[in-house]
């Protein structure tokens, strides 16, 4: 091989992106299976891992620079005068561009503009000159008054913490809180029917997925979500914003890892080589003052989602509690970008509220508190949104990089929320989280975690700490509250899944039987495991309510 070819190959290797390096790493791992060249493969993987670490650090720096350039250009555009502040901003932008050029070889960073959607909105919402401006003030809305169709009652407040037992009355039933809310993404908890979920007090459904299929018009024609999914108890729907922002392209500047976790693959492993017109399914196209537009993962069609259209869709779905449209900024963004996102969400939520109040349809609307892990922004979000006539408040956005940071943030945030209205924590609801959130005064919490891990053979069970006066012979088989039913030790374990719950979650079914179903890939395993985890969470929350009533929490 000539030196020119070798040089070209080395240069190509040096310019590989982190995404390409991760792909190369997966290729090597696949190739090493069954290969005898273990040491050589290991050495090559170590080299790629070292390069990947450096490249990820470099791309993060570039991402921060691009984000800062965008923010400062917007701030520069908003300045009318030609004074010192303008000159200082120009110098900062020049310095950032210089750093960008040294890292990328490109002289100036210019954010690529997406073509405007052909779908025209009825109202022209122009971005305010101050991108940090909130929406309209409270005096532009009707005064909040208790609803006869949505009632919130505090039954008991613990003397030991902020924990409380409450009762939420909706048109489709009463919710006793604290309460676990399972997620029925497509109007169904995966592998579980509505009849099998009849003990669930509140079910969470996703507007985004229901917009894509079957469409809100179809569900409205069926009589609403309750009739469509044969559920006779309360339902809460989100705005669709979380799923839409999860579609952000991996190359989009200002995106962090949270927005890159979900990647819908619809065209197979050779999709890069195909000319399928739907190869880019599930793609976020635009985000602006109007709202968002995205490409359907189902058929590639473009769907517009605005504060008004999200509310209109949720009116057709007919849930008891609805959520206004908000933007989901990732964890790794600059404070300037985060502040601008919070303000945009406030403006969107104010528009959502205005649309909702014109036609309430016996639905309650919860605002979503944003601000990432920035306490000042979280406080400001609470101050603005609680001034508006929302019926309750959800906590959303990034809550931290791990549970420790999340618990610290919520310990600060929850006391800021009004005690005379219900609250909800979005996307967090496993036994450990519930145990930590309830003492903070959290009323309801949703998560797909309990049913998702169940489908992979992880079952929730009691721990020794949950019970008193247990003898060694009958002690729980799990110290951490987790039972991995696929393990061989359960092959001849004929006990119930959790002998210590007051009611058998799966009467007549033993651990050995579930172990057998999972090992044989029987679909029934997914259903039974999901039912168990849902029932476990229901019993767990009921036990927490009992302890609150006794001032034990």
Q: Could you give a short account of the major beta sheet?
A: 8 strands, parallel
- Spatial strand order of the main sheet: 4-14-13-12-11-10-6-5
Oligomer classification: single chain
Shape: globular
List the helices and strands and how they pair.
Layout: H1 3-14, H2 18-32, H3 38-78, H4 84-104, E1 151-157, E2 164-170, E3 173-177, E4 179-182, E5 203-205, H5 207-212, H6 216-221, H7 225-228, E6 235-237, H8 241-245, E7 283-287, E8 292-295, E9 302-305, H9 307-317, E10 321-322, H10 335-358, E11 364-369, H11 375-385, E12 392-395, H12 403-413, E13 423-425, H13 431-437, E14 444-447, H14 449-454, E15 458-460, E16 482-484, H15 511-519, H16 523-549
Parallel strand pairs: 4-14, 5-6, 6-10, 10-11, 11-12, 12-13, 13-14
Antiparallel strand pairs: 1-2, 2-3, 7-8, 8-9, 15-16
Helix pairs in contact: 2-3, 3-4, 9-10, 10-11, 15-16
Give structural attributes:
16 helices, alpha/beta, 553 residues, disordered N terminus
What does this structure look like?
With 553 residues, this protein is of the alpha/beta class. It has 16 helices and 16 strands. The protein has helices at 3-14, 18-32, 38-78, 84-104, 207-212, 216-221, 225-228, 241-245, 307-317, 335-358, 375-385, 403-413, 431-437, 449-454, 511-519, 523-549, and strands at 151-157, 164-170, 173-177, 179-182, 203-205, 235-237, 283-287, 292-295, 302-305, 321-322, 364-369, 392-395, 423-425, 444-447, 458-460, 482-484. The strands form four sheets. An eight-stranded parallel beta sheet has the order 4-14-13-12-11-10-6-5. It has a three-stranded antiparallel beta sheet with strand order 1-2-3. The protein has a three-stranded antiparallel beta sheet with strand order 7-8-9. The longest helix is centred in the N-terminal third of the chain and has 41 residues, at 38-78. It starts with a helix and ends with a helix. The model is unreliable at 1-12, 114-122, 249-280 and 468-477 (pLDDT under 50).
């Amino acid at each position: 091989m000539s030196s020119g070819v070798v040089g070209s190959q080395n240069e190509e290797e040096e310019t590989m992106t982190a995404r390409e390096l991760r792909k190369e790493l997966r290729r090597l791992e696949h190739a090493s299976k069954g290969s005898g060249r273990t040491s050589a493969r290991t050495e090559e993987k170590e080299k790629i891992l070292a390069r990947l670490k450096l490249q990820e650090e470099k791309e993060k720096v570039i991402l921060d620079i691009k984000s800062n350039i965008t923010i400062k250009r917007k701030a520069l555009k908003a300045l009318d005068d030609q004074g010192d502040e303008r000159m200082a901003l120009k110098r900062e932008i020049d310095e950032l561009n210089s750093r960008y050029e040294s890292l990328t070889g490109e002289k100036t960073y210019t954010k690529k503009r997406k073509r405007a959607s052909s779908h025209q909105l009825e109202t022209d919402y122009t971005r305010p000159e101050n991108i940090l401006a909130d929406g309209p003030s409270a005096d532009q809305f009707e005064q909040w008054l208790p609803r006869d169709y949505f009632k919130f009652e505090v039954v008991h407040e613990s003397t030991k913490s902020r924990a409380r037992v409450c009762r939420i009355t909706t048109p489709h039933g009463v919710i006793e809180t604290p309460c676990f809310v399972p997620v029925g993404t497509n109007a169904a908890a995966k592998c579980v029917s509505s009849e099998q979920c009849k003990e669930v007090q509140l079910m969470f459904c996703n507007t985004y997925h229901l917009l894509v299929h079957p469409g809100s018009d179809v569900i409205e024609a069926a009589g609403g979500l309750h009739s469509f999914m044969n559920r006779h108890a309360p339902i809460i729907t989100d705005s669709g914003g979380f799923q839409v922002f999860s579609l952000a392209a991996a190359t989009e500047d200002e995106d962090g890892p949270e927005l890159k976790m979900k990647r819908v693959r619809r065209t197979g492993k050779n999709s890069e080589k195909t000319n399928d017109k739907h190869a880019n399914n599930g793609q976020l196209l635009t985000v602006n003052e109007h709202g968002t537009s995205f490409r359907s993962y189902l058929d590639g069609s473009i769907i517009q989602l605005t504060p008004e259209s999200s509310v209109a869709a949720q009116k057709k779905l007919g849930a008891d509690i609805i959520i206004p449209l908000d933007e989901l900024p990732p964890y790794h963004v600059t404070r300037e970008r985060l502040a601008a996102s919070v303000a945009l969400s406030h403006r969107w939520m104010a528009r959502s509220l205005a649309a909702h109040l014109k036609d309430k349809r016996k639905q309650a609307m919860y605002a979503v508190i944003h601000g990432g892990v920035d306490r000042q922004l979280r406080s400001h979000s609470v101050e603005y949104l609680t001034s508006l006539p929302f019926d309750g408040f959800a906590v959303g956005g990034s809550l931290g990089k791990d549970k420790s940071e999340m618990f610290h943030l919520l310990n600060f945030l929850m006391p800021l929320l009004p005690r005379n209205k219900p609250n909800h924590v979005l996307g967090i609801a496993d036994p450990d989280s519930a145990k930590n959130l309830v003492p903070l005064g959290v009323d309801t919490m949703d998560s797909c975690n309990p049913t998702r891990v169940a489908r992979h053979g992880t079952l929730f069970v009691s721990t020794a700490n949950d019970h008193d006066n247990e003898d060694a012979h009958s002690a729980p088989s799990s110290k951490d509250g987790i039972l991995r039913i696929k393990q061989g030790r359960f092959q001849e374990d004929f006990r119930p899944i959790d002998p210590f719950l007051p009611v058998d979650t799966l009467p007549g079914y033993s651990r050995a039987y579930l172990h057998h179903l999972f090992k044989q890939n029987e679909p029934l395993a997914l259903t039974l495991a999901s039912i168990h985890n849902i029932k476990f969470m229901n019993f767990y929350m009921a036990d927490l309510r009992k302890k609150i009533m006794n001032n034990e929490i």
